[in-house]
C-alpha cells in the first residue's frame, strides 16, 4: 500500500514536470514566432547591414551588384535572415525559461554557477559575432576580392557578382562559427565542473591546445588565412582565460 502511494506520487511528479516542460517549450515557440513576425519587415535592413563589409571594399559602388539566379532565392534569404536573428534575439529568453524550469531543483552553489552561464553564453556569442563582422569579414572579403586584380585581363576582366544566397550563407556561417567557438570557456568550465578536466590538465595540454585550435579553425572557416588566424588566435586567448577562470572557481 505504501509503495503504491509512492508510485502514484512519483507518477504525479513526473507528469507535473512534463507539463511544466511543455509549457516552457510553448512559451519559447510563441516568443520566437512573435520576434520573427516583428523582425521580418526589417530583413532588408539587416541584409544591408550584412553587406556593408563587402560594400565598403568597392571603389565603384554604383557599378556593383548582388544577383540571384532563382526566382524564390531572394525571398528565401529574407526568411533565413529573419529566422537566424529571431533565434539569436530569442536565445536569452530560451535560457531564462530553462532557468525557471530547473532552478527549483538546484542547490545554492549550482544556482550561482547556472546564473553565470546564463549571462556568459549570450555575451560570448555576441562578442564572437561582432568580432567576425568587424574584423574577420573585412579582411577575408578583401583577400577574396584581390583575385579580381590578380587574374585581371584587358580583354576579359574578371569581376565579382556574388549571389545573394551565397553571400548570406557565407556571412552567417562565419558569424555562427565565431559565436559558437567563443563559448570555449563555458565548455571547459563545464568539463571541469563534472570532473573530466581540472586545472592541472589545462596547464599540461596548453602546449598542444594551439595546434588543435589551428586544425579546428582550418576545418571550420573559409579557405583564407585571415579567417583561420582570426578564429585561432581568439580561441587560444579564450583557452588561457579558461585556465584563469578554472583556477579562481577552484
Features:
250 residues; mainly alpha
Write structural notes for this entry:
This protein is an all-alpha fold. It has one domain. Helix content is about 80%, strand content about 0%. The protein has nine helices and no strands. The chain has helices at about 1-40, 45-55, 75-100, 110-150, 165-180, 185-195, 200-205, 205-220, 225-250. The mean pLDDT is about 85.
Helix content class: over 70%
Number of strands: 0
* Unreliable residue runs: none
Largest sheet: none
Strand content: under 5%
**CA(first)-CA(last) distance:** 47 Å
- SSE pattern: HHHHHHHHH
DSSP summary: helix tally: 9
Q: What general form does the structure show?
A: flat
Total count of domains: 1
Rg over CA atoms, rounded to whole Å, is 23 Å
Mean pLDDT: 84
Give me the secondary-structure category: mainly alpha
Describe the structure concisely.
The chain is mainly alpha-helical.
Could you outline the blueprint of secondary structure elements for this entry?
Blueprint: H1 2-39, H2 43-55, H3 73-102, H4 108-150, H5 164-181, H6 184-194, H7 199-204, H8 206-220, H9 225-249
Helix pairs in contact: 1-3, 2-3, 3-4, 3-5, 4-5, 4-9, 6-9, 8-9
Amino acid at each position: 500500500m505504501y509503495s503504491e502511494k509512492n508510485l502514484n506520487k512519483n507518477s504525479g511528479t513526473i507528469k507535473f514536470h512534463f507539463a511544466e516542460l511543455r509549457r516552457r517549450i510553448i512559451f519559447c515557440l510563441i516568443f520566437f514566432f512573435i520576434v520573427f513576425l516583428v523582425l521580418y519587415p526589417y530583413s532588408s535592413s539587416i541584409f544591408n547591414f550584412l553587406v556593408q563589409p563587402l560594400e565598403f571594399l568597392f571603389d565603384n559602388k554604383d557599378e556593383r551588384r548582388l544577383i540571384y539566379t532563382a526566382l524564390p532565392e531572394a525571398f528565401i534569404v529574407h526568411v533565413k535572415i529573419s529566422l537566424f536573428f529571431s533565434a539569436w534575439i530569442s536565445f536569452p529568453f530560451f535560457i531564462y525559461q530553462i532557468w525557471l524550469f530547473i532552478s527549483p531543483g538546484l542547490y545554492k552553489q549550482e544556482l550561482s554557477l547556472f546564473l553565470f552561464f546564463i549571462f556568459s553564453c549570450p555575451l560570448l556569442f555576441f562578442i564572437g559575432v561582432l568580432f567576425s563582422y568587424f574584423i574577420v569579414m573585412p579582411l577575408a572579403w578583401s583577400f577574396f576580392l584581390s583575385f579580381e586584380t590578380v587574374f585581371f585581363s584587358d580583354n576579359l576582366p574578371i569581376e565579382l557578382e556574388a549571389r545573394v544566397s551565397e553571400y548570406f550563407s557565407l556571412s552567417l556561417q562565419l558569424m555562427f562559427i565565431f559565436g559558437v567557438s567563443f563559448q570555449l570557456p563555458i565548455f571547459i568550465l563545464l568539463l571541469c565542473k563534472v570532473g573530466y578536466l581540472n586545472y592541472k590538465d589545462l596547464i599540461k595540454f596548453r602546449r598542444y591546445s594551439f595546434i588543435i585550435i589551428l586544425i579546428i579553425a582550418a576545418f571550420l572557416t573559409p579557405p583564407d588565412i585571415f579567417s583561420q588566424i582570426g578564429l585561432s588566435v581568439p580561441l587560444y586567448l579564450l583557452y588561457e582565460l579558461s585556465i584563469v577562470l578554472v583556477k579562481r572557481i577552484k
